[in-house]
Amino acid sequence: MTPRAVIFDFWGTLAPLAWDRWQSAFGSIAQVLGVRQEQFERAWRADYDRRLVSDLRESMARVCASLGVTREEAIEEAA
User: Fold this and answer.
1) 45 half-sphere exposure, CB direction, 13 A CA radius
2) Over 80: is that where the pLDDT of 49 sits?
3) What's the CA gap between 71 and 79, in Å, rounded?
């Protein structure tokens, strides 16, 4: 049987991403959304399992909804 797909665990496995860069990204996204960084990080982590099997944009929309952010422009910029 010929394989039809190959799945890679990219971030943290094939491509390391330093924690300080994550922190910077979380801070930037939180600022765009108008929430505290700690709030965004907590919501982002809570969506981890669902994000693994869905689209990044869908995950960001769920995270934003959980934070009460409904402005489509902010959600798009954050994504």
Assistant:
1) 9
2) yes
3) 13
Taking the model in full, what pTM does it have?
Answer: 0.77
Q: Which tokens belong to 16?
A: 């390391």
- Taking alpha carbons only, the member of 44, 38, 36, 42 closest to residue 63 is 44
Q: What are the residues whose beta carbons fall under 8 Å from the beta carbon of 46, sequence distance 6 or more?
A: 63, 66
Q: What angle do CA 75, 59, 67 make, to 5 degrees?
A: 60
Give 62-73 as a DSSP string: HHHHHHT---HH
Positive or negative: CA dihedral 9, 12, 17, 23: positive
| Residue appearing with tokens 């390391």 | 16
pLDDT in tens, 20-43: 888 899 999 999 999 999 999 999
